[in-house]
Amino acid sequence: MSTTPHTGDEEGTKTEVSEAGQQSHVVVPVPAGVEPLLDASTTATVDLIEIGEITAPVTAPVPTVEEVLAKPRTPLLPKRAEWILLLASGVMTFLQRPGLVFTDSRSDLTADPTLFLSRVSDVWSSTYDLGHVQSGQFVGYLFPMAPFYAGGSQLGLPMWMVQRLWLTMILAGGAIGISRLLGALWDRHDGTARLLAGLVFVFNPYVVTQINRGTITLLAYAVLPWLLLAAHRGVLQPRRWRWPITAGALIAVGGGGVNAAVLLWVLLAPLLLMLY
User: Fold this and answer.
1) 84-95: per-residue pLDDT in tens?
2) How do residues 140-189 score in pLDDT, each as one tens digit?
3) Count of beta carbons in the 10 Å neighbourhood of residue 135
4) Ramachandran angles phi, psi of 61, nearest 5°
5) Which of 104, 101, 103, 105 is nearest to 138 (CA)?
6) Which DSSP string do the residues of 204-272 spell out, in sequence order?
7) Which of 1, 142, 219, 246 has its CB 3.0 to 4.6 Å from that of 255, i.e. a possible disulfide?
């Protein structure tokens, strides 16, 4: 729409465009004494455009504390929770007096792991007197403790580091096992609950007490959640031989050859779970 003003008593004309596209001229009187903003020559070639109402930009309201807390957060993935458990176990073990070696179950195991492995792998010992048959508890170190220490020694790792890696493997393995067990019994997607369960499994008074006595007793403790998981899967799939074989292998590496009493107490847990 264009408007051409005039001064004085002259009458201005205003061109209107209808919806059909046709133009119509309407005469608009201009009051006397009003000076034109543009002269006649300019208004003849320039169309004046009416400016509508300008609205301010819409801004989002500031959320309250209740709204922020009520928003759903990204859940912790189970795989990420297990990596956190592995990292926490490693940091905890390596921060315990780094560089110092402690007596782990047997002094000859840390003094010369390779010699200890060669002795424990033989039923007959000729170390003193006229020789003797190895005791049952001594043979119990044959697997997996003695090979792990001997392998670390052959790789040239310091003995204190081999001890910390062994302890990290036990604690992290048990923590991941309790995470998998909670995922099977509770919610497989709840990474937060699985992380908390693993942390409680690692950081508790029983672990502190058994570390001071010897880590061989922690083997059964680390095997326990995996044994429960094998029993749970075996009940759900009774025709598969995979889970009974897995349970037998876990019992074999549970340190029962050294301390059978600990392993017997551990075996009560899967029996109670199967009854449940």
Assistant:
1) 999 999 999 999
2) 888 899 999 999 999 999 999 999 999 999 999 999 999 999 999 988 88
3) 9
4) -70, 150
5) 105
6) SHHHHHHHHH-TTHHHHHHHHHHHHHHHHHHHHSTT-SHHHHHHHHHHHTTTTTT-HHHHHHHHHHHHH
7) 219
